[in-house]
Amino acid sequence: MTHKEDRAADQVTGLLLAAGGGRRLGGRPKALLEHRGRPLVEHAVGVLRTAGCARVHVVLGAAAGTVRERARLEGSVIVPNPAWQEGMGTSLRAGLDSLAGTGARAALVLLVDQPGIGPRAVGRVLGAYEDESSLVCAAYDGVRGHPVLFGAAHWAGIAATATGDRGARAYLRQHEEAITLVECGDVAQPYDIDTPQDLAHLE
């Protein structure tokens, strides 16, 4: 491991947003959807760890008790989001709040419902980390997507604008010039598991 990779593993915490209730999936919590024989949340934690995130925080909401029972999440910090029904913005805020005082200098945010994004894409975004001012997004054919890396200098601004299902979108639009885009279209597919048709992507 290079010194830079070492530093990133030390200073960047993986933040998995896994609270969604799967409204368009008939109320099946996304964290519990099966992928390669295990719940999606467990798969996503594995992606973050394989990519080099030594510390992982997992935001849970819908069916949180069942998720804890069924998924192997040992070694991860579980962050409850009682307001999960208000949208992804609440999960992002809860996740960033959970990092206060941990020594983390950046958060690498991955969404539980994007299993087409694996360790190679996450590793590229992690590799672009410099310091607390870093703002990094994966890109797919030049179009901004996930995962995203937020240096700690941005957390307060993101939390202040993360409402409803928009997450960090408004903040990223306002800080376009500061974003480092990392092309990942050759190693990942950024589809979401949102509708019954999307379930065909699961293995």
Protein architecture, described:
The protein is α/β, with parallel strands linked by helices and 203 residues long. A hairpin with a 2-residue loop joins strand 2 and strand 3. It is globular and about 40 Å long.
Cα-atom Rg, whole angstroms?
15 Å
Please state the structural category: alpha/beta
User: Which bin fits the share of residues in helices?
Assistant: 25-40%
- Sheet-strand content, in percent, reads 15-25%
Main sheet: strands, sense, barrel? 7 strands, mixed
Assembly annotation: single chain
DSSP strand tally: 9
What are its keywords?
30% helix; two-stranded antiparallel sheet; 203 residues; 7 helices; alpha/beta; seven-stranded mixed beta sheet
Protein topology:
Blueprint (H helix, E strand, L loop, with lengths): L2 H9 E7 L15 E2 L2 E2 H12 L3 E6 L3 H7 L6 E4 L7 H11 L7 E6 L7 H9 L7 E6 L2 E9 L3 H7 L7 H6 L5 E4 L20
Parallel strand pairs: 1-4, 1-6, 4-5, 7-9
Antiparallel strand pairs: 2-3, 6-8, 7-8
Helix pairs in contact: 2-5, 4-6
Write a short abstract of this structure.
By secondary structure, the protein is of the alpha/beta class. It is built from 7 helices and 9 strands, in the order αβββαβαβαβαββααβ. The strands form 2 sheets. The protein has a 7-stranded mixed β-sheet, sandwiched between helices. The protein has a two-stranded antiparallel sheet with strand order 2-3.
